[in-house]
Design brief:
The structure holds 2 protein chains of 2 kinds. Chain A has strands at about 10-15, 20-25, 30-40, 45-50, 55, 60-65, 70-75, 85-90, 105-110. By secondary structure, chain A is mostly beta strands. In chain A, strand 6 (about 60-65) and strand 7 form a beta hairpin. Chain B has strands at about 5, 10-15, 20-25, 30-35, 45-50, 55, 65-70, 75-80, 85-95, 105, 110-114. The radius of gyration of chain B is 13 Å and the shape is globular. The mean pLDDT of chain B is about 90. Classes of the chains: A mainly beta, B mainly beta. The interface of A and B includes residues 94, 95 and 96 of A.
Amino acid sequence: DAKTTQPPSMDCAEGRAANLPCNHSTISGNEYVYWYRQIHSQGPQYIIHGLKNNETNEMASLIITEDRKSSTLILPHATLRDTAVYYCIVRVFGSNYQLIWGAGTKLIIKP
Amino acid sequence: ETGVTQSPTHLIKTRGQQVTLRCSSQSGHNTVSWYQQALGQGPQFIFQYYREEENGRGNFPPRFSGLQFPNYSSELNVNALELDDSALYLCASSLEAGGENEQFFGPGTRLTVL
């Protein structure tokens, strides 16, 4: 079973920041939070991951709460090409890298 | 650096047949994972291969089997196809089996079982 809970869908205006929440209240101390996105039946694309500190890369920022029970993915300036299903995944460090996926959030960027 | 490729793109089979799907990992990636994605759902882990050995398996029956070759290619074989096997099959490669290494996904093979 997926260890994360996400809203099924969200809208965001083009040019605005898109904030995608994820709940992972049962996360363990050695479990990382990963975010991937999937654009209309293409292969999923890695976005970012983190353990307990906030992370930023060229695509997005990841904010993890202090108790690690939830996180937010931030796309700072959303474009139409960011329309996709976004998956928040928890993975145990050092495991055989099995990713347990939920249903994700369908993010629609509107012009 | 080339990305992960999969073949064929689409495939139609009938119930009871066998199918082989192929994946070419990024050069230097020792690990390949296979996922099944039904319409409207997230991918489900089938199994992972690390240096040509199975390194973990999800909740899939033995008729799902795989191979990994030294040239960074791999195969997913499915015997005795069932209607519920209709799905997008994804392979993903990574540098190593563990650690923080991200997985790089191929575009997938869309399998339809009639």
